[in-house]
């Protein structure tokens, strides 16, 4: 309802209001400040002539200028046998999963691939007495505290099938 009322006031007498705005006299721009420099040039035509005249002596000096640019020879900085120590990560071969070519072949020590993580979590869940945190740490070159955290906070999914008679009860 409010939109209709607003539209009525917006469109009321639009043409006459537009004509009134168009017919208004345009505002005159503000007067410019006279600059002293322009007045001096207008009063002295010899200054303007001096500005536009070619100076042959300066032109010949400019023609004599020749600039030649060359890059300095590139010098390879040699450390003189001094090499920075580079961080070499020890890699270990992974326990390959069932994906073959898609599996990661080498992993840095202290890290495991996703296939290995799922495998060790499942092994620990099925046989916790055999696959202890210490054995997993030794087997996969991990730190014991990391393995303990992994076993505590990550649990693999389990698939549970309900018998048909209990499905109705659920």
From TrEMBL:
Residues 17-27 have a biased composition (Basic and acidic residues). One of its GO terms (biological process) is mitochondrial respiratory chain complex I assembly. It comes from the Eukaryota. One of its GO terms (cellular component) is mitochondrion. Residues 17-44 are annotated as: Disordered. PANTHER family: NADH DEHYDROGENASE [UBIQUINONE] 1 ALPHA SUBCOMPLEX ASSEMBLY FACTOR 4, UPF0240 PROTEIN. Binds calmodulin. Interacts with NDUFAF3. Belongs to the NDUFAF4 family. This is NADH dehydrogenase [ubiquinone] 1 alpha subcomplex assembly factor 4. The gene is Ndufaf4.
């Amino acid at each position: 309802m409010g939109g209709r009322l607003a539209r009525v006031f917006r469109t009321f007498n639009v043409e006459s209001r537009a004509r009134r705005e168009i017919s208004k006299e345009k505002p005159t721009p503000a007067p410019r400040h006279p600059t002293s420099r322009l007045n001096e040039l207008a009063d002295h035509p010899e200054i303007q002539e001096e500005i536009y005249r070619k100076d042959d002596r300066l032109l010949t000096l400019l023609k004599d200028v020749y600039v030649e640019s060359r890059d300095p020879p590139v010098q390879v900085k040699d450390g003189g046998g001094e090499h920075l120590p580079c961080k070499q990560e020890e890699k270990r071969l992974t326990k390959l999963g069932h994906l073959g070519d898609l599996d990661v072949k080498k992993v840095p020590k202290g890290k495991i691939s996703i296939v290995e993580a799922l495998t060790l979590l499942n092994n620990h869940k099925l046989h916790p007495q055999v696959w202890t945190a210490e054995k997993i740490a030794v087997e996969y070159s991990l730190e014991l505290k990391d393995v303990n955290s992994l076993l505590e906070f990550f649990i693999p999914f389990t698939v549970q099938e309900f018998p048909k008679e209990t499905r109705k009860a659920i």
